[in-house]
Amino acid sequence: MLIKQLVKGMCILYCTCFLNIHILHAQDLQDTLKLTLHEAEELFIKNNVQLIAQKYSIDSARAGIITARLFDNPQFNVATGFYNPVTSKFFDNTNGDREVSMQYSQLIKTAGKRNKAIQLAKTGVALTEYQFSDLIRTLGYTLRNDFYNIYYLQQTQKVYDIEINSLHTTDTAYAAQLVKGNVSDIDLVRIQSQEYTLQAELVTLQNSIDDVQSEFKLLLRAKAIVYIVPEVDDLPQDKLSLLNIPYQALVDSAYQNRFDLKIAQANVTFNQQNLVLQKALAVPDLNIDLGYDRLGSYVKDYNSVGVDFPLPFFNRNQGYIKQAKIGVQSSKKQLEGAQDAVESQVANAYLGAVRAEKLLNSFDPKFQNNIDFLIGEVTKNFKAHNISLLEFTDFYDAYKQNVVQLNNLRYNRMSQLEQLNFTTGTRIFNK
């Protein structure tokens, strides 16, 4: 009696869980967005907030070149008598003898400061552009990795859906046979236990998919309610063996195409140009003055020309020059560190990709088709009572584990190849 009550309660729980899962699937289908990798990358370039913000930084840096090219504005002043104490008049122009003086001054920069500032600003623009490209490289890697992660997780989800639906059909048949007394309560409980276990694993899997989808949709700036379904028609990495590509070619590609390395190189150039500019700033600039005074000098309508400049006795820009020298030394060390990091990252990614390729290649290409065929045959034989319930559930469990492992291996290989693309800065694989 107790076993029958337990079976009845588990049946009710099962129906509730199964209904909820199908409701979730129905909700997902209402807002499904199917995307190829190319389409996803186009949306990423167009909509990603971080990329848009970085583009503004490039425009801001280019405005710095405009500023560096501008010449200093001239200075002009004019003065006249305000109050005449003799006549007690303001702005007195008695007999047309009103005092007026004027002066014009123009700063002339020496030592090529303007051109040096322009070159420094141009290097600043190059730095910002490299930062933008490196941001695309970094976020693009995340985008592509998430794309394939979602794809293979969804392939695994299909396995769970097939197995749960099959067990549900078997469970329904057993429940009917239980009423007729043809099967035992224990057999029905065993099938339902297997089904509930799969449903719990499926929920965990769906949560993992949702987590990756959340990050992926942020990159695309897609609506939060959308359910992304990656479309992968062909996997080009299957046509290109990593073992056929020389390792040194990958290292050379990284040195040529890694934008974080170009940033480090540009930083060295920027600091060297800044040192040159700071040394130039130690050279005094000239002021050319033109003056006119109507009545205030030793002759009427006095005019003059003059030059003035500071004497560099105390301030010769020593502090900023020292800082610039330190900046050059520091940036050179950072460049060396970036070069070491590039070689280390390429080596690590290469070894990981080789291991993933060898492991996946060790599987029989027909394994997936064979195991899919066998699961159908096992189900037929179980319904025909040719195999026991224990054999049936054991094979289903083995089927699920093998397919899940195979999908994990496929994703791991794709992820390692994307990591290699990321570390070399080149779309060698999955173009």
How would you summarize what this structure contains?
This protein is α+β, with helices and mostly antiparallel strands and 431 residues long.
Notes on the protein architecture:
By secondary structure, the chain is α+β, with helices and mostly antiparallel strands. It folds into 2 domains: 2-72 and 109-282 and 317-424, Outer membrane efflux proteins (OEP); 73-108 and 283-316. It is 69% helix and 10% strand. It is built from 10 helices and 8 strands. The strands form 3 sheets. A 4-stranded antiparallel beta sheet has the order 2-5-7-8, with no helix packed on it. The protein has a two-stranded parallel ribbon with strand order 1-6. A hairpin with an 8-residue loop joins strand 7 (286-293) and strand 8. The two termini are 64 Å apart.
| Top CATH class of the largest domain | Mainly Alpha
Helix content: 55-70%
What is the distance, rounded to the nearest whole angstrom, between the alpha carbons of the first and last residues? 64 Å
**Main beta-sheet annotation:** 4 strands, antiparallel
CATH architecture of the largest domain: Up-down Bundle
The class by helix and strand makeup works out as alpha+beta
Shape: elongated
Order of strands across the main sheet: 2-5-7-8
Chain-averaged pLDDT: 85
Spell out the CATH superfamily of the largest domain. Outer membrane efflux proteins (OEP)
- How many separate domains make up the residues? 2
- Rg from Cα: 38 Å
Runs in which pLDDT lies below 50 for 5 or more consecutive residues are: 1-29
